[in-house]
Amino acid sequence: MDLLPDLWRQEYWLPPGVTWRDVEQLADSDRPRPHDLLIALPLALGFVALRYVFESFFAPPMGRCLGVKNRLQVTAAPHPRLESFYTRRSRQPTQSEIVTLMSLCGKTQRQIETWFRLRRNQDRPPLTKKFAEAAWRFFFYLTAFVAGLACLIDSPWFWDRRECWSQYPVQPMERAHYWYYMLELGFYGSLLLRISVDIKRKDFKEQVIHHLATIFLLSFSYCANYIRIGTLVMLLHDSSDILLESAKMFNYGTGWRKTCDTLFVVFAVAFLVTRLVIFPSKILHTTLVLSIEEFQPFFGYYLFNVLLMVLQALHIFWAGLIIRMVYKFQKGKLEKDERSDEESEVEEEGPDKRGEENEDQGEDYCWERSKDKMNSKLRMLTNSCVLTNHRASVANNMRKAQ
Protein backbone atom coordinates (compact mmCIF):
# COMPACT_ATOMS: atom_id res chain seq x y z
CA MET A 1 0.00 0.00 0.00
CA ASP A 2 2.90 2.35 0.66
CA LEU A 3 4.58 1.57 -2.65
CA LEU A 4 2.67 4.15 -4.71
CA PRO A 5 3.32 7.10 -2.39
CA ASP A 6 6.99 6.13 -2.21
CA LEU A 7 7.18 6.08 -6.00
CA TRP A 8 6.46 9.81 -6.12
CA ARG A 9 8.89 10.86 -3.45
CA GLN A 10 10.43 14.12 -4.54
CA GLU A 11 13.94 12.76 -3.93
CA TYR A 12 13.41 10.45 -6.90
CA TRP A 13 12.05 12.98 -9.34
CA LEU A 14 13.37 16.38 -8.34
CA PRO A 15 16.85 17.85 -7.71
CA PRO A 16 17.91 18.51 -4.12
CA GLY A 17 16.28 21.64 -2.73
CA VAL A 18 13.26 21.47 -5.06
CA THR A 19 9.84 20.25 -3.89
CA TRP A 20 6.58 19.38 -5.59
CA ARG A 21 5.16 22.65 -4.31
CA ASP A 22 7.72 24.53 -6.40
CA VAL A 23 6.57 22.67 -9.50
CA GLU A 24 2.91 23.24 -8.67
CA GLN A 25 3.47 26.97 -9.06
CA LEU A 26 2.97 26.35 -12.78
CA ALA A 27 -0.57 26.17 -14.13
CA ASP A 28 -1.98 22.69 -14.68
CA SER A 29 -1.83 23.15 -18.44
CA ASP A 30 1.82 24.28 -18.24
CA ARG A 31 3.26 21.34 -16.31
CA PRO A 32 3.41 17.64 -17.12
CA ARG A 33 1.28 15.34 -15.00
CA PRO A 34 1.57 11.54 -14.94
CA HIS A 35 -2.08 10.93 -15.83
CA ASP A 36 -1.49 12.79 -19.09
CA LEU A 37 0.23 9.63 -20.34
CA LEU A 38 -3.09 7.78 -20.37
CA ILE A 39 -3.92 9.44 -23.67
CA ALA A 40 -1.09 7.48 -25.27
CA LEU A 41 -3.16 4.25 -25.29
CA PRO A 42 -6.08 5.59 -27.38
CA LEU A 43 -3.51 7.33 -29.59
CA ALA A 44 -1.72 3.99 -30.10
CA LEU A 45 -5.01 2.34 -31.07
CA GLY A 46 -5.73 5.29 -33.36
CA PHE A 47 -2.36 4.82 -35.05
CA VAL A 48 -3.13 1.13 -35.57
CA ALA A 49 -6.43 2.05 -37.26
CA LEU A 50 -4.81 4.83 -39.28
CA ARG A 51 -2.06 2.48 -40.38
CA TYR A 52 -4.67 -0.04 -41.58
CA VAL A 53 -6.34 2.64 -43.68
CA PHE A 54 -3.01 3.87 -45.03
CA GLU A 55 -1.75 0.39 -45.96
CA SER A 56 -5.10 -0.54 -47.51
CA PHE A 57 -5.84 2.55 -49.60
CA PHE A 58 -2.72 4.71 -49.95
CA ALA A 59 0.25 2.33 -50.00
CA PRO A 60 -0.96 0.15 -52.94
CA PRO A 61 -1.14 3.01 -55.50
CA MET A 62 2.20 4.32 -54.23
CA GLY A 63 3.67 0.86 -54.73
CA ARG A 64 2.30 0.63 -58.26
CA CYS A 65 3.92 3.96 -59.11
CA LEU A 66 7.30 2.55 -58.01
CA GLY A 67 6.74 -0.77 -59.75
CA VAL A 68 6.31 -2.92 -56.64
CA LYS A 69 5.09 -6.37 -57.65
CA ASN A 70 4.70 -9.62 -55.76
CA ARG A 71 6.69 -12.44 -57.28
CA LEU A 72 4.84 -15.55 -58.34
CA GLN A 73 5.31 -18.42 -55.94
CA VAL A 74 4.82 -22.11 -56.52
CA THR A 75 3.06 -23.57 -53.50
CA ALA A 76 4.23 -26.79 -51.92
CA ALA A 77 1.99 -29.81 -52.47
CA PRO A 78 -0.01 -30.69 -49.35
CA HIS A 79 1.76 -33.38 -47.33
CA PRO A 80 0.61 -33.89 -43.70
CA ARG A 81 3.79 -35.60 -42.52
CA LEU A 82 6.16 -32.99 -43.97
CA GLU A 83 3.87 -30.19 -42.81
CA SER A 84 3.91 -31.57 -39.27
CA PHE A 85 7.71 -31.71 -39.30
CA TYR A 86 7.89 -28.18 -40.71
CA THR A 87 5.60 -26.60 -38.12
CA ARG A 88 6.66 -28.57 -35.06
CA ARG A 89 10.36 -29.29 -35.49
CA SER A 90 12.30 -27.33 -38.08
CA ARG A 91 11.89 -25.31 -41.25
CA GLN A 92 15.32 -26.47 -42.41
CA PRO A 93 15.89 -30.19 -41.76
CA THR A 94 19.41 -31.51 -41.34
CA GLN A 95 20.90 -34.15 -43.61
CA SER A 96 20.10 -36.96 -41.19
CA GLU A 97 16.52 -35.69 -40.83
CA ILE A 98 16.18 -35.58 -44.61
CA VAL A 99 17.22 -39.24 -44.81
CA THR A 100 14.63 -40.16 -42.18
CA LEU A 101 11.92 -38.22 -44.01
CA MET A 102 12.88 -39.96 -47.27
CA SER A 103 12.24 -43.38 -45.71
CA LEU A 104 9.01 -42.25 -44.02
CA CYS A 105 7.52 -40.42 -47.00
CA GLY A 106 8.88 -42.47 -49.86
CA LYS A 107 10.40 -39.43 -51.56
CA THR A 108 13.83 -38.64 -52.95
CA GLN A 109 16.30 -36.22 -51.43
CA ARG A 110 15.54 -33.70 -54.16
CA GLN A 111 11.80 -33.90 -53.59
CA ILE A 112 12.19 -33.38 -49.83
CA GLU A 113 14.52 -30.39 -50.29
CA THR A 114 12.27 -28.86 -52.96
CA TRP A 115 9.16 -29.24 -50.76
CA PHE A 116 10.79 -27.47 -47.80
CA ARG A 117 12.14 -24.72 -50.05
CA LEU A 118 8.70 -24.07 -51.55
CA ARG A 119 7.11 -24.23 -48.12
CA ARG A 120 9.52 -21.63 -46.76
CA ASN A 121 8.77 -19.40 -49.72
CA GLN A 122 5.07 -19.54 -48.85
CA ASP A 123 5.81 -18.00 -45.44
CA ARG A 124 7.80 -15.12 -46.84
CA PRO A 125 6.01 -11.79 -46.65
CA PRO A 126 5.08 -10.39 -50.07
CA LEU A 127 6.84 -7.29 -51.37
CA THR A 128 3.63 -5.29 -51.22
CA LYS A 129 3.41 -5.93 -47.46
CA LYS A 130 7.02 -4.89 -46.96
CA PHE A 131 6.48 -1.77 -49.04
CA ALA A 132 3.33 -0.83 -47.13
CA GLU A 133 5.13 -1.15 -43.81
CA ALA A 134 8.05 0.98 -45.00
CA ALA A 135 5.72 3.57 -46.54
CA TRP A 136 3.75 3.92 -43.29
CA ARG A 137 6.90 4.48 -41.25
CA PHE A 138 8.22 6.93 -43.82
CA PHE A 139 4.95 8.87 -43.68
CA PHE A 140 5.06 9.09 -39.88
CA TYR A 141 8.74 9.93 -39.52
CA LEU A 142 8.53 12.62 -42.20
CA THR A 143 5.43 14.16 -40.62
CA ALA A 144 6.90 13.95 -37.10
CA PHE A 145 10.22 15.44 -38.18
CA VAL A 146 8.65 18.38 -40.04
CA ALA A 147 6.18 19.05 -37.21
CA GLY A 148 8.88 18.68 -34.56
CA LEU A 149 11.24 21.00 -36.38
CA ALA A 150 8.48 23.57 -36.81
CA CYS A 151 7.68 23.63 -33.09
CA LEU A 152 11.33 23.61 -31.98
CA ILE A 153 13.00 25.96 -34.43
CA ASP A 154 12.07 29.02 -32.35
CA SER A 155 12.79 27.41 -29.00
CA PRO A 156 15.88 28.76 -27.20
CA TRP A 157 17.14 25.28 -26.26
CA PHE A 158 17.23 24.29 -29.94
CA TRP A 159 20.17 26.70 -30.36
CA ASP A 160 21.60 26.76 -26.83
CA ARG A 161 21.57 23.41 -25.04
CA ARG A 162 22.13 25.02 -21.65
CA GLU A 163 18.58 26.35 -21.92
CA CYS A 164 17.38 22.77 -21.50
CA TRP A 165 18.17 23.12 -17.79
CA SER A 166 17.44 26.79 -17.18
CA GLN A 167 15.23 26.98 -14.04
CA TYR A 168 14.70 23.21 -14.17
CA PRO A 169 12.31 21.68 -13.16
CA VAL A 170 10.04 24.72 -12.97
CA GLN A 171 9.76 25.02 -16.75
CA PRO A 172 6.44 25.72 -18.47
CA MET A 173 5.40 23.21 -21.11
CA GLU A 174 4.05 24.39 -24.45
CA ARG A 175 1.05 22.56 -25.89
CA ALA A 176 2.87 21.87 -29.16
CA HIS A 177 5.59 20.03 -27.25
CA TYR A 178 2.96 18.13 -25.27
CA TRP A 179 1.36 16.81 -28.45
CA TYR A 180 4.77 16.10 -29.98
CA TYR A 181 5.51 13.88 -26.99
CA MET A 182 2.12 12.14 -26.92
CA LEU A 183 2.08 11.40 -30.65
CA GLU A 184 5.57 9.89 -30.55
CA LEU A 185 4.58 7.85 -27.49
CA GLY A 186 1.40 6.68 -29.20
CA PHE A 187 3.29 5.72 -32.36
CA TYR A 188 5.81 3.53 -30.52
CA GLY A 189 2.95 2.04 -28.55
CA SER A 190 1.29 1.09 -31.83
CA LEU A 191 4.51 -0.59 -32.99
CA LEU A 192 4.43 -2.78 -29.88
CA LEU A 193 0.75 -3.60 -30.42
CA ARG A 194 1.49 -4.79 -33.96
CA ILE A 195 4.85 -6.41 -33.34
CA SER A 196 3.37 -9.91 -33.56
CA VAL A 197 2.00 -9.34 -37.07
CA ASP A 198 4.74 -7.12 -38.49
CA ILE A 199 7.62 -8.60 -40.48
CA LYS A 200 10.12 -10.20 -38.12
CA ARG A 201 13.76 -9.40 -38.74
CA LYS A 202 17.00 -10.74 -37.35
CA ASP A 203 17.22 -7.84 -34.89
CA PHE A 204 13.72 -8.57 -33.58
CA LYS A 205 14.86 -8.71 -29.95
CA GLU A 206 16.81 -5.47 -30.31
CA GLN A 207 13.74 -3.84 -31.83
CA VAL A 208 11.59 -4.90 -28.89
CA ILE A 209 14.20 -3.57 -26.46
CA HIS A 210 14.36 -0.34 -28.46
CA HIS A 211 10.57 0.15 -28.41
CA LEU A 212 10.30 -0.62 -24.69
CA ALA A 213 13.25 1.61 -23.82
CA THR A 214 11.83 4.40 -25.97
CA ILE A 215 8.38 4.19 -24.37
CA PHE A 216 9.84 4.10 -20.87
CA LEU A 217 12.25 6.91 -21.71
CA LEU A 218 9.48 9.10 -23.11
CA SER A 219 7.19 8.38 -20.17
CA PHE A 220 9.83 9.00 -17.52
CA SER A 221 11.24 12.12 -19.18
CA TYR A 222 7.71 13.54 -19.48
CA CYS A 223 6.87 12.96 -15.81
CA ALA A 224 10.26 14.39 -14.73
CA ASN A 225 9.79 17.39 -17.05
CA TYR A 226 12.79 16.52 -19.23
CA ILE A 227 10.68 17.66 -22.14
CA ARG A 228 13.17 20.11 -23.59
CA ILE A 229 15.99 17.60 -24.03
CA GLY A 230 13.43 14.90 -24.89
CA THR A 231 12.15 16.82 -27.91
CA LEU A 232 15.72 17.14 -29.21
CA VAL A 233 16.25 13.37 -28.86
CA MET A 234 13.07 12.63 -30.83
CA LEU A 235 13.91 15.10 -33.58
CA LEU A 236 17.41 13.68 -33.96
CA HIS A 237 16.15 10.11 -34.33
CA ASP A 238 13.39 10.93 -36.82
CA SER A 239 15.84 12.68 -39.15
CA SER A 240 17.73 9.55 -40.22
CA ASP A 241 14.75 7.19 -40.01
CA ILE A 242 13.16 9.08 -42.91
CA LEU A 243 16.06 8.14 -45.18
CA LEU A 244 16.00 4.50 -44.06
CA GLU A 245 12.34 3.98 -44.89
CA SER A 246 12.56 5.87 -48.18
CA ALA A 247 15.48 3.66 -49.27
CA LYS A 248 13.40 0.58 -48.46
CA MET A 249 10.50 1.87 -50.52
CA PHE A 250 12.64 2.39 -53.63
CA ASN A 251 14.39 -0.94 -53.06
CA TYR A 252 11.08 -2.83 -53.27
CA GLY A 253 10.26 -1.09 -56.55
CA THR A 254 11.48 -1.88 -60.05
CA GLY A 255 14.06 0.21 -61.88
CA TRP A 256 15.11 2.34 -58.91
CA ARG A 257 18.45 0.68 -58.11
CA LYS A 258 20.59 3.83 -58.41
CA THR A 259 18.09 5.82 -56.36
CA CYS A 260 18.04 3.11 -53.69
CA ASP A 261 21.84 2.92 -53.59
CA THR A 262 22.13 6.69 -53.27
CA LEU A 263 19.57 6.85 -50.46
CA PHE A 264 21.31 4.02 -48.66
CA VAL A 265 24.66 5.83 -48.74
CA VAL A 266 23.04 9.07 -47.56
CA PHE A 267 21.21 7.18 -44.82
CA ALA A 268 24.39 5.44 -43.67
CA VAL A 269 26.21 8.75 -43.40
CA ALA A 270 23.27 10.43 -41.64
CA PHE A 271 22.85 7.54 -39.19
CA LEU A 272 26.52 7.39 -38.25
CA VAL A 273 26.73 11.16 -37.84
CA THR A 274 23.50 11.60 -35.84
CA ARG A 275 23.75 8.46 -33.67
CA LEU A 276 27.49 8.11 -33.13
CA VAL A 277 28.61 11.75 -33.24
CA ILE A 278 25.79 14.19 -32.48
CA PHE A 279 23.93 12.02 -29.97
CA PRO A 280 26.89 11.35 -27.62
CA SER A 281 28.65 14.70 -28.14
CA LYS A 282 25.55 16.89 -27.88
CA ILE A 283 22.69 15.02 -26.21
CA LEU A 284 24.63 12.88 -23.73
CA HIS A 285 27.00 15.76 -23.00
CA THR A 286 23.98 17.92 -22.24
CA THR A 287 22.37 15.39 -19.89
CA LEU A 288 25.57 14.25 -18.18
CA VAL A 289 27.62 17.46 -17.93
CA LEU A 290 25.62 20.61 -18.64
CA SER A 291 22.71 19.51 -16.45
CA ILE A 292 24.79 19.35 -13.25
CA GLU A 293 25.81 22.96 -13.80
CA GLU A 294 22.25 23.81 -12.73
CA PHE A 295 21.53 21.15 -10.08
CA GLN A 296 23.13 18.33 -8.12
CA PRO A 297 22.74 14.75 -9.39
CA PHE A 298 19.77 12.80 -8.04
CA PHE A 299 17.99 9.50 -8.80
CA GLY A 300 16.12 10.84 -11.82
CA TYR A 301 19.38 12.17 -13.27
CA TYR A 302 21.02 8.73 -13.10
CA LEU A 303 17.98 6.83 -14.41
CA PHE A 304 17.49 9.16 -17.35
CA ASN A 305 21.12 8.87 -18.38
CA VAL A 306 21.09 5.07 -18.01
CA LEU A 307 18.14 4.91 -20.42
CA LEU A 308 19.99 7.12 -22.87
CA MET A 309 23.00 4.82 -22.56
CA VAL A 310 20.81 1.83 -23.47
CA LEU A 311 19.66 3.75 -26.52
CA GLN A 312 23.27 4.53 -27.42
CA ALA A 313 24.20 0.84 -27.09
CA LEU A 314 21.51 0.01 -29.65
CA HIS A 315 22.90 2.76 -31.89
CA ILE A 316 26.31 1.09 -31.78
CA PHE A 317 24.78 -2.32 -32.55
CA TRP A 318 22.95 -1.02 -35.63
CA ALA A 319 25.94 1.07 -36.69
CA GLY A 320 28.00 -2.13 -36.79
CA LEU A 321 25.46 -3.70 -39.15
CA ILE A 322 25.46 -0.61 -41.35
CA ILE A 323 29.27 -0.49 -41.52
CA ARG A 324 29.30 -4.13 -42.59
CA MET A 325 26.77 -3.31 -45.30
CA VAL A 326 28.81 -0.34 -46.50
CA TYR A 327 31.94 -2.52 -46.65
CA LYS A 328 30.13 -5.13 -48.72
CA PHE A 329 28.54 -2.43 -50.86
CA GLN A 330 31.92 -0.98 -51.75
CA LYS A 331 33.14 -4.43 -52.78
CA GLY A 332 30.00 -5.11 -54.77
CA LYS A 333 29.11 -8.07 -52.58
CA LEU A 334 26.10 -6.75 -50.73
CA GLU A 335 23.24 -9.15 -51.20
CA LYS A 336 20.75 -8.07 -48.58
CA ASP A 337 20.19 -6.02 -45.48
CA GLU A 338 21.96 -7.35 -42.38
CA ARG A 339 18.58 -6.94 -40.67
CA SER A 340 16.70 -8.92 -43.33
CA ASP A 341 13.58 -10.74 -42.25
CA GLU A 342 13.99 -14.20 -40.81
CA GLU A 343 11.87 -15.80 -43.53
CA SER A 344 14.50 -14.97 -46.15
CA GLU A 345 17.49 -17.01 -45.18
CA VAL A 346 19.79 -17.91 -48.08
CA GLU A 347 19.06 -21.35 -49.49
CA GLU A 348 21.72 -23.80 -50.52
CA GLU A 349 19.90 -25.96 -53.03
CA GLY A 350 21.56 -26.31 -56.42
CA PRO A 351 19.73 -25.24 -59.60
CA ASP A 352 16.70 -23.83 -57.81
CA LYS A 353 18.81 -21.50 -55.74
CA ARG A 354 18.68 -18.72 -58.31
CA GLY A 355 14.90 -18.62 -58.08
CA GLU A 356 15.04 -18.15 -54.35
CA GLU A 357 17.69 -15.47 -54.61
CA ASN A 358 15.30 -13.62 -56.86
CA GLU A 359 12.81 -13.85 -54.00
CA ASP A 360 15.48 -12.47 -51.68
CA GLN A 361 15.76 -9.38 -53.85
CA GLY A 362 12.80 -8.06 -51.91
CA GLU A 363 14.94 -7.80 -48.79
CA ASP A 364 15.89 -4.44 -47.41
CA TYR A 365 18.85 -3.18 -49.43
CA CYS A 366 19.22 -6.31 -51.52
CA TRP A 367 21.85 -5.70 -54.17
CA GLU A 368 22.45 -8.39 -56.79
CA ARG A 369 25.71 -10.27 -56.88
CA SER A 370 27.05 -13.22 -58.82
CA LYS A 371 26.91 -16.50 -56.93
CA ASP A 372 29.78 -18.91 -57.24
CA LYS A 373 28.25 -21.99 -58.85
CA MET A 374 31.27 -24.09 -57.99
CA ASN A 375 30.55 -23.72 -54.26
CA SER A 376 27.00 -24.94 -54.84
CA LYS A 377 28.22 -28.00 -56.74
CA LEU A 378 30.75 -28.81 -54.04
CA ARG A 379 28.04 -28.62 -51.40
CA MET A 380 25.83 -30.94 -53.43
CA LEU A 381 28.71 -33.40 -53.83
CA THR A 382 29.37 -33.36 -50.08
CA ASN A 383 25.68 -33.85 -49.32
CA SER A 384 25.56 -36.81 -51.71
CA CYS A 385 28.48 -38.48 -49.92
CA VAL A 386 26.86 -37.99 -46.54
CA LEU A 387 23.50 -39.24 -47.78
CA THR A 388 25.08 -42.38 -49.27
CA ASN A 389 26.40 -43.37 -45.85
CA HIS A 390 23.07 -42.60 -44.21
CA ARG A 391 21.12 -44.62 -46.77
CA ALA A 392 23.39 -47.63 -46.19
CA SER A 393 22.91 -47.33 -42.44
CA VAL A 394 19.13 -47.05 -42.76
CA ALA A 395 19.01 -50.06 -45.12
CA ASN A 396 21.00 -52.22 -42.67
CA ASN A 397 18.71 -51.22 -39.81
CA MET A 398 15.62 -52.08 -41.85
CA ARG A 399 17.04 -55.56 -42.73
CA LYS A 400 17.78 -56.26 -39.08
CA ALA A 401 14.27 -55.15 -38.12
CA GLN A 402 12.80 -57.55 -40.67
Explain what you see.
The protein has 402 residues and is an all-alpha fold. It is 68% helix and 0% strand. The chain is built from 16 helices and no strands. It has helices at 3-7, 10-13, 20-23, 40-65, 80-88, 95-105, 109-123, 127-152, 156-159, 175-193, 204-223, 227-252, 257-290, 299-330, 353-360, 373-401. The longest helix has 34 residues, at 257-290. It is elongated and about 80 Å long. The N and C termini lie far apart (72 Å).
Question: Briefly, what is this?
Answer:
The protein has helices at 3-7, 10-13, 20-23, 40-65, 80-88, 95-105, 109-123, 127-152, 156-159, 175-193, 204-223, 227-252, 257-290, 299-330, 353-360, 373-401.
State the main characteristics:
single chain; 402 residues; mainly alpha; 16 helices; 68% helix; elongated
State the separation between the terminal residues, measured CA to CA.
72 Å
- Low-confidence stretches at least 5 residues in length (pLDDT < 50)? 341-379
- Report the major sheet: none
Instruction: List the secondary-structure elements in sequence, H or E.
Output: HHHHHHHHHHHHHHHH
Mean pLDDT: 83
Sheet-strand content, in percent, reads under 5%
Helical fraction equals 55-70%
Radius of gyration: 27 Å
> How many DSSP helices?
16
Cα shape: elongated
What would you call the structural class? mainly alpha
Number of strands: 0
SSE arrangement:
Elements: H1 3-7, H2 10-13, H3 20-23, H4 40-65, H5 80-88, H6 95-105, H7 109-123, H8 127-152, H9 156-159, H10 175-193, H11 204-223, H12 227-252, H13 257-290, H14 299-330, H15 353-360, H16 373-401
